[in-house]
Amino acid sequence: MNYPLWLIYIASAIGGGAFSYLIGDSLFDMIPASIGGLVSTLALVLFQHYLQAKFFSEYLAAFFWRSNGVNPCS
User: Fold this and answer.
1) What DSSP state is assigned to residue 23?
2) Cα–Cα distance between 27 and 60 in angstroms, integer?
3) How far is CA 73 from CA 3, 36, 42, 65, 70, in A?
């Protein structure tokens, strides 16, 4: 990664919230979406650090995001 981690974390949180607003959710729904984007990026960075395999760590981070960030009841 060419950017500092703090910048990547902030960008993923802003991107998650912006995407939530873009698909038609309210401004109140941007907060959990921002948290979900941040947590998924944190998981990706940690998985990449410990596993040293990019594809598998991206797969695990996507699974982690799906299981924690998306509420099937909404």
Assistant:
1) T
2) 29
3) 36, 16, 25, 16, 9
- pTM for this prediction: 0.72
Cα–Cα distance for residue pair 29/18, rounded to 1 Å? 10
Gap between the Cα atoms of 20 and 60, Å rounded: 22
SS (H, E, C) 7-20: HHHHHHHHHHHHHH
pLDDT digits (tens, 9 = 90+) for 6-48: 998 999 889 888 888 888 878 888 888 888 888 888 888 888 8
Report how far residue 10's alpha carbon sits from residue 12's, in angstroms, rounded to the nearest whole number.
5
Residues 9, 41 contacting (CB under 8 angstroms): yes
Give the alpha-carbon dihedral of 39, 43, 23, 72, to 10 degrees.
-90
